[in-house]
Amino acid sequence: MILAATRRLNPAPYLVSISVSPEIVVLLIGHQYCQMLSMFQPSVSISGTSANYSAESIAKRQRRSLETATRLWLDGIQRRWRRERRRRKVGRAYDMALEIARVLPDKSRVLDVGCGNGFIAHHLSAMLNAKAIGIDLDDRTEAAIDYRQFDGKQFPVADRSVDAVLLCYVLHHAQDIGRLMRELHRVLSFGGQAVIYEDIPSGWWDRLVCWTHNLKWRKRTGPCTFRNESEWRALFDSAGFDILTERPLSRGRNLTHPVRRRFYVLKQNSSQAVTQLAVVPRDPKWQRSFLEFVSSQKEFARQG
User: Fold this and answer.
1) Is residue 253 domain-resident?
2) Is 10 within the bounds of a domain?
3) Where are the alpha helices (DSSP H) in 175-224?
């Protein structure tokens, strides 16, 4: 009862009087005023800046992704183009090697003059189980063959050391074709053959293609000399070679160089072989080769 009476007399006995300085009151009022103003003012947070930053970063990432995708796409196209060019190059060499293998005996010793990438000699070494040597002006070639650098004058092989010489679109580059034909006689064994591919410009289109070919190569190998069929026959005959096989080839064999062309297989004639026999050592090996050659020439003349 005493406690109840006390509460009625003093309802909040825990409240005590506190003296507050005027400075604190001013600060509290100012704080409340600032809070009220902030409710009606736009936000000064960094949300807008962060939104702009996020949009810029997203755009940069998208540009980088697009650039990366474009670069990968272009790299893929370039790789496919290089692979396709290599396939065409190797495939064209395979077709020519297959054509050459039909006119050469197995295990022939083959010299490819102006071999370029070397794939013709590479394919022939597998097709004929042949020893194939490639020579050209460059210091190396692509295919895995016995490659030797050529100085443009003398073949880097020994006398009468090969059974066949390939001249695939090479003769029109020769600056001294007489010397080149003498080199053929020097390196060919008795009865050896020369296999020749040549461009034959017969019309205005062929001459235009050969003219552009000459522009491409004249600074490297000198001006090209293209001949017609009768001129090639006269040149081979004067150089001491008989034509065993001769046939035209299609322009479509190489669409990047669409010109009429011709395929020749040559063999040393008897008079040239006799001349060579006079300058070689008189050992049984060379005598036997010469007799075999003479008998083959007689058979060839009889068939002709």
Assistant:
1) yes
2) no
3) 177-187, 204-221
Q: How many CB atoms lie within 10 A of CB 140?
A: 8
Distance CA 204, CA 210 (A): 10
Return the biggest CA–CA distance within the chain. 158
- On the CB side of 108, CA atoms within 13 Å amount to 27
* 275 vs 237, more confident: 237
Domain limits for position 110: 93-303
Of 1-15, 73-87, 141-155, 258-272, which range is least confident?
Answer: 1-15
Output the pLDDT for position 298.
53
Burial 91-101 (b: 16+ CB within 10 A, else e): eebbebbeebb
Residue 72 lies in a domain: no
Q: Tell me, what DSSP letter sits at residue 299?
A: H
Which residue would you say has higher pLDDT here, 295 or 266? 266
CATH of the domain at 125: 3.40.50.150
Structure tokens at 196: 């020749």
Per-residue DSSP letter, 68: H
> Would the CA dihedral through 97, 98, 99, 104 be positive or negative?
positive
Residue written as tokens 């050896």? 192
Counting the structural domains of the chain, the total is 1
Per residue, what are the HEC states of 95-157?
Answer: HHHHHHHCCCCCCCEEEEECCCCCHHHHHHHHHCCCEEEEEECCCCCCCCCEEEECCCCCCCC
Residue position matching structure tokens 């050209």: 136
Tokens of 65: 């992704």
**Nearest to 224, CA basis, from 118, 142, 114:** 114
Place of tokens 């005598």: 287
* 172 domain residue, yes or no: yes
* SS3 of residue 11 by DSSP: coil
